[in-house]
Design goal:
It is built from 2 helices and 3 strands; from the N terminus they run βββαα. With about 70 residues, the protein is α+β, with helices and mostly antiparallel strands. It folds into 2 domains: about 35 residues; about 35 residues, no CATH class. It has a 3-stranded antiparallel sheet with strand order 1-2-3, with no helix packed on it. A hairpin with a 5-residue loop joins strand 2 and strand 3. The longest helix is centred in the C-terminal third of the chain and has 14 residues. The two termini are about 25 Å apart. The structure holds zinc ion (ZN). Zinc ion (ZN) binds next to loops.
Length: about 70
C-alpha cells in the first residue's frame, strides 16, 4: 500500500491495535490506518451530516480524542 500522503512505497506496519493495522511512511513519517479499515464513502457522508465541524461540538471533539488515544501508548 502506498503512503496516503506522499504516495511513497516505503511504508511499514507501525502498530496493530483493535485488529487494525496502522502504517508508517519512511519518507514523510505520516502514520495512517490501513485503507481496508477506512469507512466507506456513504457512511462517511452520513457521519458528516450527523454533526457540525465546530470545535464546540462534542461529537467533533470526540473524533480528535479518539485519534489521540489511538496513538497514545
Ligand atoms: Zn509518505
Amino acid at each position: 500500500m502506498p503512503c496516503i500522503v506522499c504516495k511513497s512505497e516505503l511504508v511499514s506496519s507501525f502498530i496493530t491495535k483493535d485488529r487494525k493495522t496502522y502504517w508508517q511512511c519512511s519518507h514523510c513519517s505520516v502514520k495512517f490506518l490501513d485503507q481496508a479499515f477506512f469507512i466507506d464513502e456513504d457512511t462517511e457522508k452520513g457521519r458528516y451530516l450527523e454533526h457540525h465541524n465546530e470545535i464546540g461540538d462534542p461529537a467533533y471533539l470526540q473524533v480528535f480524542i479518539q485519534i489521540i488515544r489511538t496513538f497514545d501508548g
